[in-house]
Amino acid sequence: MPVTIIAMPAGPRQPRPRRTRQADLFRHLPHLIQRLVRRREIGRIHRIAVRRLHDQPRGFQHPLALHPAREREAVSGDDGAIEGEVIHVDAFGNLVTNLPASLLPRLLAAGAIRVGERTVSRVVRTYGEAPRGSLVALLGSQEALEVAVVEGAVDASTRLLALPFDHIFFTGSPAVGQVVMAAAARHLASVTLELGGKNACIVYPDANLELATAGAVNGMNFTWCGQSCGSTSRLFLHESVHDHVLAGILEKVRHYQPGLPTELETTMGCVVSKDQFDKVMRYIDIAKKEGARLVHGGKRPDGAHLKAGWFVEPTIFADVTQNMRIANEEVFGPILSVLKWSNEEDLFRQVNSVEYGLTASIWTRDLAQAHRAAAQVQSGFVWVNHVGSHFIGASFGGYKQSGIGREEGFDELLSFTQSKNVHVVL
What we know:
- The structure is a single chain.
- The chain is an alpha/beta fold.
- Helices cover 33% and strands 16% of the residues.
- It has helices spanning 18-38, 50-53, 56-60, 68-76, 95-102, 104-109, 132-139, 156-161, 174-187, 209-218, 242-252, 274-289, 344-351, 367-376, 410-415, and strands at 3-7, 86-89, 123-126, 146-150, 167-171, 190-194, 200-203, 234-238, 293-296, 315-318, 335-341, 356-357, 359-363, 381-384, 399-400, 403-404.
- Helix 5 (95-102) crosses helix 7 and helix 10 (209-218) packs across helix 11 (242-252).
- The chain is globular and about 75 Å long.
- Mean pLDDT is 76; it is low at 1-13, 39-57, 62-83, 92-96, 108-128 and 130-154.
């Protein structure tokens, strides 16, 4: 697995006002996007991604959107500092879209609370299949960042975790997250872990069924071939609306057509690698053998021009029960499992029976019912009559094996600090 080490220049740094850092960021963002489009290393495939890059400025604001009262408290104090090495490790992904919204805000927002003089002096990002051209385009000037790439078959995790560090931010699987946490324990270092999800979308009989149907499809992130830890891959439909909503889903999912990213009619990408493709196909076979009913997809899409890629049709299984592997294990692919429910107590038992607890989506017109369900569901980020969106200043993170700590809000900024109490007698 290639390992990219992004290192901030060493040595003391003068903290800059938060507004100044934010203004500099937005002033240079258009140039960054143009660099992305023009760089020859990227090729035509990334030009399509520019449409999403136009949404990225909003992503930069997540860690900068501090509550006014807390902002004054944070900016006025100089004693919250973590002086040392901070490692950021992320799973495979496209740096065109992931890096701006994920990594850079943490570097730039650090000045808002003076996270030590060295702030973030080493940031490490690992990725297996991310296009190299996007990394070259986004990093741009070597004067700003130093980049080293470690190639070969050496275990990247071992190499990274052998480095001394004071805090580590990891995004990936629970299995690797446990290894990361064990390594952090050797240093008595703090951790932030954003891990997997097997998230539930719950539809009550009183819900707006048209909106709930659209939400069930949108929550699967089929555009990314389901490769999102927040995808609502378990759909719990009340028995009185099950058939109606399922029929609507089968109609709406036709919008997602796998294809080449250079073709404008393409609405769905491929999975990241052959290994991931094989894993998705293996889970499709397992679901069939365990008795789930395939109602859509389940194979490679037709078309000779797609045979060389790792494309999978959007796949929907009905008649799924919670004891099936497809309802318990994270596939990280375009597979939606549909379960039927009638008793609310049993519903919550099934929803909470998995080892994950990242997101949940609840659809109902009854606000009291929505709050009751949100309180019962063991998930760290819950939407009501909505799905998918992250909100500026709202911390994101999960329960159980979905991770430790929060990102995108004030909680994340605090995770990069330490508290110091100074008692003075004159």
